[in-house]
Amino acid sequence: MVRLAQQSRRRICALPVGASAGGASDVSVIGRESLVSRWMCLVSSYSPSCLFSTGTGCAGARDEESDPEPLPLPLPPPTRPVLVRDFIRSALYDPDHGYFSKRSGSVGVLDRSINFNQLQGRNAYMRHLHSLYKKHDIAWFTPVELFKPWYAHGIAEAILRTANLSVPLKIYEIGGGSGTCAKCIMDYMMLNAPPKIYNNMTYISVEISPALAKKQLETVGDVQSHLSRYHVECRDASDRSGWGNVDAQPCWVIMLEVLDNLPHDLIFSPNQVSAWMEVWVEKVQGSGEISEIYKPALDPLITRCIEITGMDKQNVAHDNQVLSSLKHVWSKAFPKSRRAWMPTGCLKLLDVLHWALPNMSLIASDFSYLPDVRISGDGAPLVSVKKDGRTIDYDSYLDAKGDADIFFPTDFSMLELIDHHCSGWLNQQPGSNSSRPIKKRRTITLDTASFMEEFGLPSKTRTKDGYNPLLDDFKNTKFYLSVPTYNAK
Protein backbone atom coordinates (compact mmCIF):
# COMPACT_ATOMS: atom_id res chain seq x y z
CA MET A 1 0.00 0.00 0.00
CA VAL A 2 3.45 2.79 -0.88
CA ARG A 3 6.04 4.21 -1.65
CA LEU A 4 10.93 2.88 -0.85
CA ALA A 5 11.85 1.48 2.49
CA GLN A 6 12.31 5.10 2.58
CA GLN A 7 10.23 5.90 -0.42
CA SER A 8 8.12 2.78 -0.50
CA ARG A 9 4.84 3.67 1.12
CA ARG A 10 3.59 0.18 1.46
CA ARG A 11 3.31 -0.17 5.18
CA ILE A 12 -0.03 -1.53 6.19
CA CYS A 13 -2.48 0.26 8.36
CA ALA A 14 -5.90 -1.03 9.24
CA LEU A 15 -8.56 -0.10 11.71
CA PRO A 16 -9.07 -2.62 14.49
CA VAL A 17 -12.25 -4.58 14.28
CA GLY A 18 -14.85 -3.03 16.52
CA ALA A 19 -13.06 0.30 16.85
CA SER A 20 -15.11 3.36 16.11
CA ALA A 21 -13.97 5.73 13.43
CA GLY A 22 -13.46 8.55 15.83
CA GLY A 23 -13.12 6.56 19.04
CA ALA A 24 -10.72 7.66 21.72
CA SER A 25 -8.03 5.42 23.04
CA ASP A 26 -6.21 5.15 26.34
CA VAL A 27 -2.97 5.56 24.46
CA SER A 28 -2.35 8.33 21.98
CA VAL A 29 -2.22 7.15 18.40
CA ILE A 30 0.70 8.27 16.40
CA GLY A 31 1.24 8.15 12.74
CA ARG A 32 1.88 5.21 10.50
CA GLU A 33 3.72 3.11 13.05
CA SER A 34 1.16 3.69 15.77
CA LEU A 35 -1.71 2.36 13.70
CA VAL A 36 -0.06 -1.02 13.42
CA SER A 37 0.72 -1.62 17.03
CA ARG A 38 -2.39 0.12 18.29
CA TRP A 39 -4.30 -2.58 16.48
CA MET A 40 -2.13 -5.25 18.06
CA CYS A 41 -2.84 -3.94 21.54
CA LEU A 42 -6.57 -3.62 20.98
CA VAL A 43 -7.11 -7.06 19.51
CA SER A 44 -4.70 -9.10 21.57
CA SER A 45 -3.92 -9.45 25.23
CA TYR A 46 -0.56 -10.92 24.35
CA SER A 47 1.54 -7.77 24.63
CA PRO A 48 -0.33 -5.04 26.53
CA SER A 49 2.75 -2.86 26.80
CA CYS A 50 3.42 -2.72 23.07
CA LEU A 51 4.05 0.71 21.62
CA PHE A 52 1.57 2.36 19.32
CA SER A 53 3.18 2.79 15.95
CA THR A 54 1.94 3.59 12.46
CA GLY A 55 1.74 1.39 9.44
CA THR A 56 -0.65 1.08 6.59
CA GLY A 57 -2.55 -1.80 7.90
CA CYS A 58 -2.88 -4.32 10.60
CA ALA A 59 0.32 -6.09 10.04
CA GLY A 60 2.33 -5.85 13.17
CA ALA A 61 4.04 -3.57 15.62
CA ARG A 62 7.49 -2.14 15.79
CA ASP A 63 9.42 -3.73 18.61
CA GLU A 64 9.89 -1.22 21.38
CA GLU A 65 13.15 -2.85 22.44
CA SER A 66 14.84 -2.10 19.12
CA ASP A 67 17.11 0.91 18.91
CA PRO A 68 15.56 3.98 17.29
CA GLU A 69 16.73 4.79 13.80
CA PRO A 70 19.23 7.65 13.53
CA LEU A 71 17.52 10.92 12.71
CA PRO A 72 18.64 13.19 9.89
CA LEU A 73 19.82 16.68 10.63
CA PRO A 74 16.85 19.03 11.16
CA LEU A 75 15.41 20.52 8.01
CA PRO A 76 16.38 24.21 7.91
CA PRO A 77 13.58 26.77 7.49
CA PRO A 78 12.88 27.74 3.88
CA THR A 79 14.95 30.69 2.70
CA ARG A 80 11.97 32.05 0.80
CA PRO A 81 8.21 31.46 0.90
CA VAL A 82 7.23 28.06 -0.54
CA LEU A 83 3.93 26.31 -1.15
CA VAL A 84 2.93 23.73 1.44
CA ARG A 85 3.51 20.88 -1.05
CA ASP A 86 7.14 21.99 -1.50
CA PHE A 87 7.62 22.17 2.26
CA ILE A 88 6.21 18.63 2.63
CA ARG A 89 8.35 17.34 -0.23
CA SER A 90 11.48 18.70 1.47
CA ALA A 91 10.44 17.37 4.88
CA LEU A 92 10.04 13.88 3.40
CA TYR A 93 12.50 13.64 0.52
CA ASP A 94 15.25 16.26 0.90
CA PRO A 95 18.44 14.24 0.23
CA ASP A 96 20.23 15.61 3.30
CA HIS A 97 17.44 16.38 5.76
CA GLY A 98 14.31 14.54 4.61
CA TYR A 99 12.56 11.88 6.68
CA PHE A 100 13.16 9.18 4.08
CA SER A 101 16.70 10.21 3.20
CA LYS A 102 18.30 8.66 6.29
CA ARG A 103 15.90 5.78 6.80
CA SER A 104 17.32 3.31 4.35
CA GLY A 105 16.62 0.26 6.48
CA SER A 106 15.17 -2.29 4.13
CA VAL A 107 11.52 -3.21 4.26
CA GLY A 108 11.28 -6.56 5.99
CA VAL A 109 11.47 -9.70 3.89
CA LEU A 110 10.14 -12.94 5.35
CA ASP A 111 12.25 -16.07 4.97
CA ARG A 112 9.12 -18.02 4.15
CA SER A 113 5.38 -17.43 3.79
CA ILE A 114 3.21 -17.54 6.90
CA ASN A 115 1.11 -20.70 7.08
CA PHE A 116 -2.10 -19.09 8.33
CA ASN A 117 -4.01 -22.36 8.19
CA GLN A 118 -1.79 -23.74 10.96
CA LEU A 119 -2.46 -20.83 13.34
CA GLN A 120 -5.30 -21.24 15.81
CA GLY A 121 -6.68 -17.72 15.60
CA ARG A 122 -6.10 -14.03 16.25
CA ASN A 123 -3.96 -14.41 19.37
CA ALA A 124 -1.75 -17.00 17.73
CA TYR A 125 -1.35 -14.72 14.71
CA MET A 126 -0.34 -11.79 16.94
CA ARG A 127 2.20 -13.89 18.81
CA HIS A 128 3.66 -15.05 15.50
CA LEU A 129 3.92 -11.46 14.28
CA HIS A 130 5.65 -10.43 17.48
CA SER A 131 8.25 -13.15 17.05
CA LEU A 132 8.82 -12.15 13.41
CA TYR A 133 9.47 -8.54 14.33
CA LYS A 134 11.88 -9.54 17.08
CA LYS A 135 13.69 -11.93 14.76
CA HIS A 136 14.07 -9.55 11.84
CA ASP A 137 14.51 -6.35 13.88
CA ILE A 138 12.96 -4.14 11.19
CA ALA A 139 10.44 -1.33 11.22
CA TRP A 140 7.60 -2.97 9.32
CA PHE A 141 6.43 -5.67 6.97
CA THR A 142 4.36 -4.64 4.00
CA PRO A 143 1.00 -6.37 3.42
CA VAL A 144 2.30 -7.90 0.23
CA GLU A 145 5.12 -9.40 2.33
CA LEU A 146 3.01 -10.59 5.26
CA PHE A 147 0.47 -12.24 2.99
CA LYS A 148 2.85 -13.44 0.30
CA PRO A 149 2.25 -14.84 -2.17
CA TRP A 150 -1.54 -14.51 -1.84
CA TYR A 151 -1.79 -10.70 -1.73
CA ALA A 152 0.16 -10.28 -4.97
CA HIS A 153 -1.59 -13.28 -6.52
CA GLY A 154 -4.91 -11.47 -6.08
CA ILE A 155 -3.52 -8.50 -8.00
CA ALA A 156 -2.14 -10.80 -10.69
CA GLU A 157 -5.52 -12.49 -11.09
CA ALA A 158 -7.25 -9.11 -11.42
CA ILE A 159 -4.81 -8.21 -14.19
CA LEU A 160 -5.27 -11.52 -16.00
CA ARG A 161 -9.06 -11.22 -15.98
CA THR A 162 -9.15 -7.73 -17.45
CA ALA A 163 -5.95 -7.33 -19.49
CA ASN A 164 -5.91 -7.14 -23.27
CA LEU A 165 -4.05 -10.39 -23.86
CA SER A 166 -3.82 -9.88 -27.62
CA VAL A 167 -0.70 -7.77 -26.97
CA PRO A 168 2.30 -8.60 -24.77
CA LEU A 169 1.60 -7.95 -21.09
CA LYS A 170 3.49 -4.94 -19.71
CA ILE A 171 3.30 -4.00 -16.02
CA TYR A 172 4.72 -0.91 -14.33
CA GLU A 173 4.99 -0.79 -10.54
CA ILE A 174 5.50 2.61 -8.91
CA GLY A 175 7.53 2.18 -5.74
CA GLY A 176 8.28 -1.52 -5.77
CA GLY A 177 9.52 -1.86 -2.18
CA SER A 178 11.62 -5.00 -1.72
CA GLY A 179 10.43 -6.55 -5.00
CA THR A 180 8.13 -9.11 -3.38
CA CYS A 181 5.05 -7.91 -5.29
CA ALA A 182 6.87 -8.14 -8.62
CA LYS A 183 8.28 -11.59 -7.91
CA CYS A 184 4.95 -13.02 -6.75
CA ILE A 185 3.06 -11.58 -9.71
CA MET A 186 5.62 -12.99 -12.13
CA ASP A 187 5.48 -16.35 -10.32
CA TYR A 188 1.70 -16.34 -10.75
CA MET A 189 1.93 -15.55 -14.45
CA MET A 190 4.55 -18.25 -14.97
CA LEU A 191 2.45 -20.90 -13.21
CA ASN A 192 -1.13 -19.93 -14.08
CA ALA A 193 -1.23 -17.88 -17.28
CA PRO A 194 -0.93 -19.29 -20.80
CA PRO A 195 2.78 -19.74 -21.61
CA LYS A 196 2.82 -16.92 -24.18
CA ILE A 197 1.70 -14.43 -21.50
CA TYR A 198 4.69 -15.09 -19.25
CA ASN A 199 7.15 -15.59 -22.11
CA ASN A 200 6.34 -12.21 -23.65
CA MET A 201 5.64 -10.15 -20.53
CA THR A 202 7.65 -7.16 -19.26
CA TYR A 203 7.64 -5.92 -15.66
CA ILE A 204 9.14 -2.48 -14.97
CA SER A 205 9.68 -1.05 -11.50
CA VAL A 206 9.92 2.74 -11.30
CA GLU A 207 11.80 3.19 -8.04
CA ILE A 208 13.19 6.41 -6.55
CA SER A 209 15.44 4.68 -4.02
CA PRO A 210 18.75 3.24 -5.36
CA ALA A 211 19.02 0.88 -2.37
CA LEU A 212 15.58 -0.56 -2.99
CA ALA A 213 16.17 -0.78 -6.73
CA LYS A 214 19.10 -3.08 -5.96
CA LYS A 215 17.03 -5.07 -3.46
CA GLN A 216 14.24 -5.56 -5.99
CA LEU A 217 16.64 -7.07 -8.51
CA GLU A 218 17.90 -9.47 -5.86
CA THR A 219 14.38 -10.54 -4.86
CA VAL A 220 13.11 -11.06 -8.38
CA GLY A 221 16.38 -12.74 -9.33
CA ASP A 222 15.55 -15.69 -7.07
CA VAL A 223 13.81 -17.03 -10.17
CA GLN A 224 16.36 -16.81 -12.95
CA SER A 225 13.84 -16.72 -15.78
CA HIS A 226 12.23 -13.58 -14.33
CA LEU A 227 15.33 -11.43 -14.83
CA SER A 228 15.06 -11.23 -18.61
CA ARG A 229 11.52 -9.88 -18.22
CA TYR A 230 12.15 -7.52 -15.28
CA HIS A 231 13.71 -4.05 -15.26
CA VAL A 232 14.21 -1.35 -12.62
CA GLU A 233 14.27 2.32 -13.56
CA CYS A 234 15.63 4.40 -10.68
CA ARG A 235 13.79 7.72 -11.09
CA ASP A 236 10.86 9.85 -9.96
CA ALA A 237 7.66 8.59 -11.59
CA SER A 238 6.09 12.07 -11.51
CA ASP A 239 8.90 13.56 -13.62
CA ARG A 240 7.64 13.58 -17.20
CA SER A 241 11.15 13.67 -18.68
CA GLY A 242 11.90 10.21 -17.29
CA TRP A 243 9.21 8.56 -19.40
CA GLY A 244 10.64 9.47 -22.79
CA ASN A 245 8.17 9.15 -25.65
CA VAL A 246 4.49 8.34 -25.28
CA ASP A 247 3.80 4.58 -25.21
CA ALA A 248 0.28 3.95 -26.53
CA GLN A 249 0.38 0.18 -25.99
CA PRO A 250 -1.96 -1.23 -23.32
CA CYS A 251 -0.23 -1.75 -19.98
CA TRP A 252 -0.89 -1.98 -16.25
CA VAL A 253 0.30 0.38 -13.51
CA ILE A 254 0.40 -0.82 -9.88
CA MET A 255 0.61 1.65 -6.98
CA LEU A 256 0.43 0.10 -3.51
CA GLU A 257 0.35 2.71 -0.73
CA VAL A 258 2.00 5.30 -2.94
CA LEU A 259 -0.62 8.04 -2.70
CA ASP A 260 -0.36 8.51 1.06
CA ASN A 261 3.11 10.06 0.96
CA LEU A 262 2.65 12.24 -2.12
CA PRO A 263 2.94 16.00 -1.43
CA HIS A 264 -0.33 17.84 -0.82
CA ASP A 265 -1.27 21.51 -0.85
CA LEU A 266 -3.32 23.33 1.76
CA ILE A 267 -6.06 25.85 0.95
CA PHE A 268 -7.75 28.25 3.37
CA SER A 269 -10.85 30.41 3.54
CA PRO A 270 -11.46 32.88 6.42
CA ASN A 271 -15.20 32.21 6.47
CA GLN A 272 -18.01 30.20 4.91
CA VAL A 273 -18.37 32.20 1.69
CA SER A 274 -14.99 33.74 0.83
CA ALA A 275 -12.90 32.35 -2.02
CA TRP A 276 -10.24 29.76 -1.30
CA MET A 277 -6.66 30.95 -0.81
CA GLU A 278 -3.47 28.95 -1.21
CA VAL A 279 -1.22 28.48 1.82
CA TRP A 280 2.50 29.21 1.72
CA VAL A 281 5.17 28.65 4.37
CA GLU A 282 7.86 31.18 5.27
CA LYS A 283 10.50 31.72 7.93
CA VAL A 284 9.59 34.13 10.70
CA GLN A 285 12.08 36.98 10.55
CA GLY A 286 14.59 36.96 13.37
CA SER A 287 13.85 33.40 14.48
CA GLY A 288 14.07 29.82 13.32
CA GLU A 289 10.32 29.37 13.38
CA ILE A 290 8.10 29.09 10.32
CA SER A 291 4.54 30.24 9.77
CA GLU A 292 1.78 30.24 7.18
CA ILE A 293 0.89 33.05 4.81
CA TYR A 294 -2.17 33.18 2.57
CA LYS A 295 -2.31 34.26 -1.06
CA PRO A 296 -5.01 34.23 -3.75
CA ALA A 297 -5.28 30.77 -5.32
CA LEU A 298 -3.27 31.14 -8.54
CA ASP A 299 -1.03 28.06 -8.61
CA PRO A 300 -2.08 25.92 -11.62
CA LEU A 301 -2.08 22.60 -9.74
CA ILE A 302 -4.08 24.04 -6.85
CA THR A 303 -6.65 25.80 -9.03
CA ARG A 304 -7.09 22.66 -11.14
CA CYS A 305 -7.59 20.55 -8.01
CA ILE A 306 -10.19 23.00 -6.70
CA GLU A 307 -12.00 22.96 -10.05
CA ILE A 308 -11.87 19.18 -10.50
CA THR A 309 -13.25 18.49 -7.05
CA GLY A 310 -15.94 21.16 -7.34
CA MET A 311 -14.72 23.06 -4.31
CA ASP A 312 -14.87 26.31 -6.28
CA LYS A 313 -18.63 25.87 -6.50
CA GLN A 314 -19.04 25.53 -2.75
CA ASN A 315 -18.64 29.27 -2.42
CA VAL A 316 -21.03 30.13 -5.24
CA ALA A 317 -24.56 30.82 -4.05
CA HIS A 318 -27.24 28.93 -5.94
CA ASP A 319 -29.99 30.20 -3.66
CA ASN A 320 -32.22 33.19 -4.18
CA GLN A 321 -30.93 36.65 -3.44
CA VAL A 322 -32.43 36.81 0.06
CA LEU A 323 -30.79 33.53 1.17
CA SER A 324 -27.52 34.56 -0.43
CA SER A 325 -27.54 37.84 1.48
CA LEU A 326 -28.35 36.06 4.73
CA LYS A 327 -25.42 33.67 4.23
CA HIS A 328 -23.02 36.56 3.74
CA VAL A 329 -24.35 38.36 6.80
CA TRP A 330 -24.10 35.19 8.88
CA SER A 331 -20.54 34.51 7.72
CA LYS A 332 -19.48 37.99 8.77
CA ALA A 333 -21.24 37.84 12.12
CA PHE A 334 -20.11 34.29 12.89
CA PRO A 335 -17.09 33.61 10.68
CA LYS A 336 -15.78 30.06 10.61
CA SER A 337 -12.53 29.49 8.79
CA ARG A 338 -12.10 26.47 6.55
CA ARG A 339 -9.04 24.44 5.60
CA ALA A 340 -8.72 21.62 3.09
CA TRP A 341 -5.81 19.50 1.89
CA MET A 342 -5.58 19.06 -1.87
CA PRO A 343 -3.87 16.02 -3.49
CA THR A 344 -1.81 18.04 -5.95
CA GLY A 345 0.95 15.42 -5.91
CA CYS A 346 -1.58 12.81 -7.05
CA LEU A 347 -2.81 15.16 -9.76
CA LYS A 348 0.72 15.70 -11.03
CA LEU A 349 1.51 11.96 -11.03
CA LEU A 350 -1.70 10.98 -12.84
CA ASP A 351 -1.16 13.79 -15.32
CA VAL A 352 2.21 12.31 -16.20
CA LEU A 353 0.99 8.70 -16.26
CA HIS A 354 -1.97 9.46 -18.54
CA TRP A 355 0.31 11.42 -20.85
CA ALA A 356 3.06 8.78 -20.98
CA LEU A 357 0.77 5.71 -20.93
CA PRO A 358 -2.58 6.81 -22.42
CA ASN A 359 -3.93 3.25 -22.54
CA MET A 360 -2.82 2.19 -19.09
CA SER A 361 -4.97 0.28 -16.63
CA LEU A 362 -4.43 1.18 -12.98
CA ILE A 363 -4.57 -0.68 -9.67
CA ALA A 364 -3.99 1.50 -6.60
CA SER A 365 -4.37 0.59 -2.94
CA ASP A 366 -4.23 2.94 0.03
CA PHE A 367 -5.83 4.28 3.21
CA SER A 368 -9.36 5.56 2.91
CA TYR A 369 -9.39 6.83 6.49
CA LEU A 370 -6.91 7.63 9.27
CA PRO A 371 -8.01 7.72 12.92
CA ASP A 372 -7.19 10.34 15.53
CA VAL A 373 -5.73 12.95 13.19
CA ARG A 374 -4.72 16.03 15.18
CA ILE A 375 -4.03 18.40 12.30
CA SER A 376 -6.88 20.59 11.11
CA GLY A 377 -8.47 20.56 7.66
CA ASP A 378 -10.41 18.16 5.49
CA GLY A 379 -8.15 15.29 4.42
CA ALA A 380 -5.45 16.26 6.93
CA PRO A 381 -2.41 14.00 7.39
CA LEU A 382 -0.97 12.18 10.34
CA VAL A 383 2.47 13.55 11.22
CA SER A 384 4.41 11.27 13.53
CA VAL A 385 7.93 10.96 14.87
CA LYS A 386 9.65 8.27 16.89
CA LYS A 387 11.69 9.55 19.86
CA ASP A 388 13.28 7.52 22.63
CA GLY A 389 11.42 4.41 21.52
CA ARG A 390 8.03 6.13 21.55
CA THR A 391 5.96 7.40 18.67
CA ILE A 392 4.52 10.89 19.01
CA ASP A 393 1.92 12.67 16.91
CA TYR A 394 2.58 16.28 16.03
CA ASP A 395 -0.23 18.84 16.25
CA SER A 396 1.05 20.77 13.23
CA TYR A 397 2.68 19.75 9.98
CA LEU A 398 5.03 22.73 10.49
CA ASP A 399 6.68 20.77 13.30
CA ALA A 400 8.03 18.25 10.80
CA LYS A 401 11.72 19.04 10.35
CA GLY A 402 12.74 15.91 8.50
CA ASP A 403 12.20 13.79 11.60
CA ALA A 404 8.57 12.91 10.95
CA ASP A 405 6.53 10.74 8.62
CA ILE A 406 3.74 12.70 6.90
CA PHE A 407 1.01 10.63 5.30
CA PHE A 408 -2.49 11.30 4.08
CA PRO A 409 -5.76 9.42 3.71
CA THR A 410 -6.98 8.94 0.16
CA ASP A 411 -10.40 10.25 -0.80
CA PHE A 412 -11.23 7.62 -3.42
CA SER A 413 -14.11 9.60 -4.91
CA MET A 414 -11.69 12.51 -5.39
CA LEU A 415 -9.13 10.10 -6.85
CA GLU A 416 -11.72 8.97 -9.38
CA LEU A 417 -12.50 12.57 -10.38
CA ILE A 418 -8.80 13.34 -10.85
CA ASP A 419 -8.30 10.12 -12.83
CA HIS A 420 -11.12 11.00 -15.25
CA HIS A 421 -9.90 14.57 -15.56
CA CYS A 422 -6.32 13.54 -16.36
CA SER A 423 -7.44 10.95 -18.91
CA GLY A 424 -9.57 13.52 -20.76
CA TRP A 425 -13.04 13.02 -22.20
CA LEU A 426 -14.12 11.32 -25.40
CA ASN A 427 -16.12 14.31 -26.62
CA GLN A 428 -13.15 16.65 -26.23
CA GLN A 429 -11.82 15.32 -29.51
CA PRO A 430 -11.80 17.66 -32.55
CA GLY A 431 -15.12 17.69 -34.40
CA SER A 432 -17.18 16.46 -31.44
CA ASN A 433 -20.58 18.12 -31.08
CA SER A 434 -21.50 16.60 -27.72
CA SER A 435 -21.68 18.92 -24.74
CA ARG A 436 -22.00 16.21 -22.09
CA PRO A 437 -18.68 14.79 -20.86
CA ILE A 438 -18.20 11.14 -21.81
CA LYS A 439 -15.79 9.17 -19.66
CA LYS A 440 -12.83 7.44 -21.27
CA ARG A 441 -12.37 5.05 -18.37
CA ARG A 442 -14.32 2.50 -16.34
CA THR A 443 -13.55 2.64 -12.64
CA ILE A 444 -14.47 0.82 -9.45
CA THR A 445 -13.44 1.16 -5.80
CA LEU A 446 -13.46 -1.94 -3.58
CA ASP A 447 -12.57 -2.39 0.05
CA THR A 448 -9.66 -4.76 0.58
CA ALA A 449 -11.88 -7.65 1.71
CA SER A 450 -14.11 -7.37 -1.39
CA PHE A 451 -11.11 -7.18 -3.70
CA MET A 452 -9.46 -10.25 -2.21
CA GLU A 453 -12.70 -12.23 -2.11
CA GLU A 454 -13.18 -11.50 -5.81
CA PHE A 455 -9.65 -12.02 -7.08
CA GLY A 456 -7.68 -13.75 -4.33
CA LEU A 457 -7.77 -17.00 -2.40
CA PRO A 458 -9.09 -16.02 1.05
CA SER A 459 -8.86 -19.60 2.30
CA LYS A 460 -5.06 -19.30 2.23
CA THR A 461 -5.01 -16.51 4.84
CA ARG A 462 -7.64 -18.00 7.17
CA THR A 463 -6.72 -19.40 10.59
CA LYS A 464 -8.20 -22.54 12.14
CA ASP A 465 -10.99 -20.72 13.98
CA GLY A 466 -12.04 -18.74 10.89
CA TYR A 467 -10.23 -15.49 11.67
CA ASN A 468 -8.73 -13.98 8.51
CA PRO A 469 -6.43 -10.97 9.06
CA LEU A 470 -6.40 -10.05 5.38
CA LEU A 471 -10.20 -9.84 5.23
CA ASP A 472 -11.07 -8.85 8.79
CA ASP A 473 -8.59 -6.13 9.63
CA PHE A 474 -8.13 -3.88 6.62
CA LYS A 475 -11.27 -1.84 7.15
CA ASN A 476 -9.70 1.50 6.27
CA THR A 477 -7.94 0.45 3.07
CA LYS A 478 -9.35 0.20 -0.44
CA PHE A 479 -8.41 -0.80 -3.96
CA TYR A 480 -9.07 1.46 -6.95
CA LEU A 481 -9.24 -0.07 -10.43
CA SER A 482 -9.34 2.05 -13.58
CA VAL A 483 -9.29 0.73 -17.14
CA PRO A 484 -9.77 2.34 -20.57
CA THR A 485 -13.16 1.95 -22.20
CA TYR A 486 -11.51 1.08 -25.54
CA ASN A 487 -14.43 2.66 -27.40
CA ALA A 488 -12.74 5.84 -28.60
CA LYS A 489 -12.97 6.34 -32.34
UniProtKB/TrEMBL annotation:
<dbReference type="GO" id="GO:0032259">
    <property type="term" value="P:methylation"/>
</dbReference>
<dbReference type="InterPro" id="IPR003788">
    <property type="entry name" value="NDUFAF7"/>
</dbReference>
<keyword id="KW-0496">Mitochondrion</keyword>
<comment type="similarity">
    <text>Belongs to the NDUFAF7 family.</text>
</comment>
<protein>
    <recommendedName>
        <fullName>Protein arginine methyltransferase NDUFAF7</fullName>
        <ecNumber>2.1.1.320</ecNumber>
    </recommendedName>
</protein>
<keyword id="KW-0808">Transferase</keyword>
<dbReference type="InterPro" id="IPR029063">
    <property type="entry name" value="SAM-dependent_MTases_sf"/>
</dbReference>
<dbReference type="InterPro" id="IPR038375">
    <property type="entry name" value="NDUFAF7_sf"/>
</dbReference>
<dbReference type="Pfam" id="PF02636">
    <property type="entry name" value="Methyltransf_28"/>
</dbReference>
<comment type="function">
    <text>Arginine methyltransferase involved in the assembly or stability of mitochondrial NADH:ubiquinone oxidoreductase complex (complex I).</text>
</comment>
<dbReference type="GO" id="GO:0005739">
    <property type="term" value="C:mitochondrion"/>
</dbReference>
<keyword id="KW-0489">Methyltransferase</keyword>
<dbReference type="GO" id="GO:0035243">
    <property type="term" value="F:protein-arginine omega-N symmetric methyltransferase activity"/>
</dbReference>
